[in-house]
Amino acid sequence: MTGRIALAISLLSLAACGGGGSLGSTPFASLGSGPGTSPPATRQATRARGAESVAVNRYLWNASLDVLSFLPIQSVDPFTGVIVMGYGTPPGGGRAYRATVYVSDPALDARALNVALASRNGPVAEETSRAVEDAILARARELRIRDGQL
């Protein structure tokens, strides 16, 4: 888990420094939001694609890594807001899952988060995906509150 955290921190540092390039191709590579200002609770990552940029909410990003820490990370792309995770079994569970997380907006909002969760038998029930999204949103709010108390 320490390796995942170090990887995430180094990638976010790279994004903050304006480093270019992609860390892998993703199905969401063509998606983005128009340029604009981002609130202090976000980290702006801009990809060299003309006028297109994607703002990623750092709390949703970090909460996704925290909540789904039992899954191995296959690829992360802070420039498009995509985290692809391989199969893993949650603590105390017997079923393996994999996930793709897409953080599409700088807002700390449910609309900014999309989690595609699957088991080895195919997509999981919508209630399961919703529960994972709710856990990520709750953790993101906790992280935001903690930062506000500093």
Description:
The model is unreliable at 1-51 (pLDDT under 50). Helices cover 32% and strands 24% of the residues. The radius of gyration is 15 Å and the shape is globular. A five-stranded antiparallel sheet has the order 3-4-5-6-7, covered by helices on one side. The protein has a two-stranded antiparallel ribbon with strand order 1-2. The protein contains three helices and seven strands. The chain has 150 residues and is of the alpha+beta class. Helix 2 packs across helix 3. The chain has one domain. The chain has helices at residues 2-16, 58-67, 126-148, and strands at residues 42-45, 54-57, 73-77, 82-88, 97-103, 113-119, 122-123.
Backbone CA Rg: 15 Å
Number of domains: 1
How many DSSP E strands? 7
Shape designation: globular
Query: Which strand-content bin applies to the residues?
Result: 15-25%
**Low-confidence blocks of residues:** 1-51
Helix and strand element order: HEEHEEEEEH
Task: Output the strand order for the largest sheet.
Answer: 3-4-5-6-7
Region (Disordered): 28-47
InterPro entries: DUF3576
Keywords: Signal
Organism: Roseisalinus antarcticus
